[in-house]
Fold this sequence. Notes:
Chain A is of the alpha/beta class.
Amino acid sequence: MIEIKNIAKTFGDRQVLAGIDGSFQPGETSLVIGGSGTGKSVLLKCMIGLVTPDEGEVLYDGRNFLTADENTRKAIRREMGVLFQGSALFDSKNVFDNVRFPLDMLTQMSEDEKADRAHASLQRVGLENAEQRMPSEISGGMKKRVGIARAIVMNPKYLFCDEPNSGLDPLTSIKIDQLIKEITDEYKITTVVITHDMNSMMEIGEKIMFLFEGHKLWEGNSDTLAHSDVKELNEFIYANKLLRELERK
Amino acid sequence: MVTLGRYFIFLGTLVRNRERLKVYLRLILDECVDIGVNSVFIVAIVASFIGAVTCVQTAYNLDNPFVPRNIIAFIVRDSTILEFAPTISSIVLAGKVGSSIAGQLGTMRVTEQIDALEVMGINSSSYLVLPKVIGAMLMFPLLTIMAAFLGILGGYLAGVIVGVISHEDFMTGLRFSYNPFGIKFALIKTEVFAFLIATISAYQGFNVSGGALEVGNASTNAVTASCISIIVADFVLTQLLLA
């Protein structure tokens, strides 16, 4: 389980996060939603240690990530898998080497074991035929899937996805969402997804946290999302004309 | 001063919490090819022509019949070994290698590849930059030796072909009053220049924030800062080692 307590972050004189609390359970896909510039990505970066919050705690199964010693932090990091918004694949390595990279760097496995694990990860995301291709030779959706394969190759306990649908067509978005949901259920991972994609919210939002101007304004799930009385959330959800029409009917 | 402080902190991160040594071996070899082998052509061309131009221009300026012609070869030799091979080659490499390092790391920063390394618990600066620094420090001296040889050869060919100096005079001048410390001095300078180019360019690239525009700016800044640091270091080293 991941718990965040009173996370606050200010850049210059602009407060980006103000006292965010929450918990994310294993085997559950939790979504952090909100408009652009509301602090979603900063919250994710605080949770994975890329940004140090000014205040607050991030607990991974009770271990405080922010105050832990270097060895504990390394151990926690090795239990994380992260899918970045732009996939963040290494340009100089092919698909297979990208997925095998964490095993090369962080484990003492034999070459055969590493190869088997990387093959299995790529097979899990349906990319066993693209192993030798370079990142520049594959589509955006494939890059996301390679990113997921790399994120799960170490059998993580915690999976973080930053805007997994950005730049993808609706059909590919749904496939990526389903893949994240399946992997979460299959490996009982604690998954946190940062998104503003309405499809994702309805499809995989077992738990949803809504951020607005750095504050947490609402928490619920995909069933209660459409019936909240939070004005900012309703404006966010019904910004889409199609959804407004559906709500009216 | 703040930038200088950050630069030194950055240098500290290259050697703190390093990865296993085995990890670096392959990376260093790759960098040796990238920085060294891929720069042979440009350094060879520049060095050969600078040697040639030095020979012809020196001959043009030394038209006094009381000055022996072999002095031309003596000047070509010393100016090539002491200055042109290490310094001009390093300035050329600051443009080629420095901009490449800054661009590469800057792109990795803005495409979150460096974040991906850090999230895995890998010391990204050490993993990405240390092999480049070691690769540069291994390969720059070899390029300088090659540049010195080709510079003198260029001077010889230009001088003999144009007819400003004979083969015998050139050979006499080449051997005249030779001090082997010149080679050591050139190699010491080159090592310092290699370190400066690799670390300054890496610092510029590693600390990019923004997008493609900032990556371009980082490459430009890397070349500018590297060139200035080479000139300053050249003066300081000359004063320390030759004065």
